[in-house]
User: Fold this.
Amino acid sequence: MTTSNSTTFDFQGARVLVTGGSNGIGLEIAQSFVLAGAIVTITGTKDSPAQYSHDLSRFEYIKCVMSSREDIATLSQSISALDILVNNAGQVMPNGGNEYDPDVFEEAVLINLSAAFRLTQLLHPLLAKSTLRGGACVINMASLASFFAVEFVPGYGAAKAAVVQMTKTLAVHYASDNIRVNAIAPGLVESNMTAPMLPFDALTKPHLDRSPIRRIGTPSDIAPAALFLASEASQFITGHTLVIDGGFSAKG
Assistant:
């Protein structure tokens, strides 16, 4: 006897912003919200959605370089209503730099932490006006690097560790405005960021050997968690970071 499991969410008419939604995990999250009926805006670093090799026509697209205060301000001013903010945009080794260089370290922290805080604060008034059942929602993107040392990206790791703490603090601070704040910490997932390392067994085998579910994750493993955390089903969850890593962190 064959059985199937499927979970559906209804976000009909909800307004969603996914930063870095033009590729990878962000794109999968954005697509999932669209399929659930939401009106979704995404950001990317290219001037136009037509410059991407995949179809982004179902989204409103706004260019935003997350290291630019001006771009973040323009983005926030372009949004007229918002129920769900997904702070997904991130980068390792900005401009190919070495994160042990203090300037590159600072830029990594700016892109992966400070930009999300700045945007969330700017959009707070819109989120506070949301009438979404279960409350408005902010979902931050953490990482296994929030909890484990990744030696070659000290700036990225420091930023992602801070995202976990920022999530807790904003959850407390925004609770009175009926805004929940949670985070997702993916393990090793196929994406543009991880593409340079995935072909090399020497880099992936130690990770797979430690993971009880012995495979590399995909964006489709992450997106359903974002919908759950934004849904009424999780209305009693805030300040939490959900680790999705195939069991990697379960082993000491």
